[in-house]
Amino acid sequence: MPGKASVTRSVRIEKDADERLRHLAEQGDTSVNTLVNRALRKFVEWDAYGEKFGFITLPSAMLIKLMDCLTDEEARELLRLTQVIVTARPGWRLDEVERALTPAQRAALGDPTFKYLRISEVGPELARTPPVPGLVLLVEVVSLDISSREIRQLVEEGRSVRFLVPDTVAAYMQKNRLYQKRSSRPGGRKEGDPHRG
Question: Which of 88, 127, 151, 191 has the highest local Cβ count within 10 Å?
Fold first, then answer.
């Protein structure tokens, strides 16, 4: 990381995680060191707070489906009771979130306001602060560049997605048997367990 001080630290990692790191590095034409640094940066800047404060991560398709199930009044109530934090995934920009809402969608949500934050501005004090009704926080984060297609493929192959998605997402995928091959579903077999290392 040019321009940033670094330290050398020796750590032990699980063999299967190392193998996947090497594979991802080869696919991305990068180094294992770069991938590990990205993952650690994401953890210290986002995941550590996310799990501690009960943040949940939803893919955009799931959020759209959820919003389709709500009445306009329920959507406004949800925005009033929760602190909505939006982050961009690779290939998307945060300013697209604000621009993508139509006037009708804005009205249905109670005309939310948007505030841009850097991840370094998201800390314990945010979790202790009651949600500001109608405020949507748009937070820049360092992300691990892996597609949902790659996640689905790993689970379909019965391989672990540990360290690639938050533990809560992996647990949800396992509980609901998402992306598992049909042959692995009956009888409670562990094939396709996203937590399996």
Answer: 151
